Amino acid sequence: MKAIVYEETGPSAVLKLRDRPLVDPGQDEVRVRLLVSGVNPTDWKSRSGGGSRKLDAPKVPNQDGAGVIDAVGAGVAGFGVGDRVWLWDVAWGGNEGTAQEYVTVPAGKVVPLPDGESFDAGASLGIPALTAHRALTSSEGGPSRLSPGALAGRTVLVTGGAGAVGHAAIQLARWAGASVITTVSGDHKAELARRAGAGTVINYRTDDVVRAVRDAAPDGVDTIVEVNAPANIEAGLEVLKPGGTISVYAANPGESLTVPIREGMTKNVRLQFILTYTVTDEQKQDAVAAVSGALEAGALRVGEDYGLPLTRFPLEETAAAHDAVEQGIVGKVLIDVAP
């Protein structure tokens, strides 16, 4: 089978197309014939490694993907050959990612993909949607698992609503019944955020964000899904309700956050840092179940019409796909694994 591998960390040039043998599934495993692989910032950052370093074994990049089950190992219940599925956290803690034609994974990392949903949608879930779910459920007293009505009466502010996590957060929050405000950096991104379902869209480069949020939510917002805490912390504390939560899910290497302590204390604010890989097993399973439910309900759609443009690359151009994500391309980058 064809696979993209790297034997040392570094720039995207370390990614090479190779032939690899198929691996049969073992106990409680399935093998998936991948059709689409999703690329996230975490994929290029892991590959980069902060510099050149020889690896102990070749590694296949990319956490997310979607395809069809090709073989089923002993002890697996609920799945069969030919089932359409999406995958999550495939490369985490191991060497096998989704930038290859087949991957053998624990059955617990495989989720049914509804017949009415595309493989593109399945490959776009994973890291973005599971991160968004944790951000939306990290409030004290809030739901641990989203479902229709779980956020009814609440207001969510999503900063960077045109990004993959922001897009998923808007869609999940709307599905769960919340009112959604989002910030973006331009007119095109504003239109994408509206297509995703945001009720109020604010251009942070031209608008007074605090005033605009207060106009939309005079009592403040309950939760902020935060993509750039260093730039937004002061405004966030101003618009947050007492007892509200700021969920921080992104940072640049070595980046620090200076928090106005008195302002945070006065409102009894919760500052929640999030890395989807290291949440508890219960939190991860709640996220997978909720995302699966939202997908089944048609609430997690991708593509230009739904606010998340797709940019595609063939498997052999995985390096270019990584570069596109690193350079901040708008929307979702997908790799067509199958010819």
Walk me through what this model shows:
The protein is an alpha/beta fold. The chain folds into 2 domains: 152 residues, Alpha-Beta Complex (Quinone Oxidoreductase, Chain A, domain 1); 149 residues, 3-Layer(aba) Sandwich (Rossmann fold). Helix content is 28%, strand content 28%. The protein contains 10 helices and 16 strands. The strands form 3 sheets. Strands 3, 5, 6, 7, 8, 15 and 16 form a 7-stranded mixed sheet that branches. A 6-stranded parallel sheet has the order 11-10-9-12-13-14, sandwiched between helices. Strand 1 and strand 2 form a beta hairpin. Helix 3 packs across helix 9. The protein is globular, with a radius of gyration of 20 Å. The N and C termini lie close together (12 Å). The relative contact order is 0.16. The mean pLDDT is 97.
How would you concisely characterize the structure shown here?
By secondary structure, the chain is of the alpha/beta class. The chain is 28% helix and 28% strand.
Element pattern in H and E? EEEHEEEEEHHEHEHEHEHEHEHEHE
Described by strand count, sense and barrel closure, the largest sheet is: 7 strands, mixed
**Can you tell me the CATH architecture of the largest domain?**
Alpha-Beta Complex
Backbone CA Rg: 20 Å
DSSP summary: helix tally: 10
**Level of helix content?**
25-40%
User: What characteristic shape results from the CA principal axes?
Assistant: globular
Mean pLDDT: 97
CATH domain fold name of the largest domain: Quinone Oxidoreductase, Chain A, domain 1
The fourth-level CATH homologous superfamily of the largest domain is: Medium-chain alcohol dehydrogenases, catalytic domain
Number of strands: 16
How far is the first residue's CA from the last residue's CA?
Answer: 12 Å
Which class of secondary structure composition applies to the elements? Answer: alpha/beta
Extract low-pLDDT stretches. none
Q: In percent terms, what proportion of residues is strand?
A: 25-35%
Q: Briefly, what CATH class of the largest domain? A: Alpha Beta
How many domains? The number is 2
